[in-house]
Amino acid sequence: MKNIMTLTLALLLGVGLQAQNTNVTNVTKKTVTTVKDSDGVKKTVKEQNIQAKQKIELENADSKTLNKNLKDSPVEMISTTTVTNPDGTTRTVAIDRSSAYQFNGNNYMLSLDPSGYIVTDVDNNKIGILRATTTNSYIFRGEKSISIGYFDVDGNMVLETYDDDSDTVTTRTFVRMQK
Description:
Elements (H helix, E strand, L loop, with lengths): L1 H15 L5 E16 L2 E16 L1 E2 L11 E2 L3 E10 L5 E4 L5 E5 L2 E8 L2 E6 L4 E7 L5 E5 L3 E6 L5 E7 L4 E9 L3
Antiparallel strand pairs: 1-2, 2-5, 3-4, 5-6, 7-8, 7-14, 8-9, 9-10, 10-11, 11-12, 12-13, 13-14
């Protein structure tokens, strides 16, 4: 019985002392937005967690030299954004598309709201709302139209609107502005 306990303890310690073969770095960025209006103070907390994982690989791993050089290996980046709304509800956003965009010489801001995104102009006037669908696209509801939207590979927001009078679809591309 004593030998079994000793063997179990040795196995547990041996498993705990295994070498680490991945390098993991976590960075968390927290942004608190406070809005004061006639209804009171509303606080929205946006927390972005970026995790970088890299496998540790050695050059000439089979050699008998004591000090070995590390081999370059790819880094896997994982980013998640958690938004806590003023009412206390929390949602997780896989890719945060909040940014400044430009269309026809006018600047617009896309920012997170409790259910999706809100689109405003430079004077902070609400232009419309953007809501995610299950097909990796968005529904944009503006003052005068409803459009289907998506983001292209460059991060630009593309809105496609159907015109009932001319029976055509018009495409508007809002170019993402670099910070």
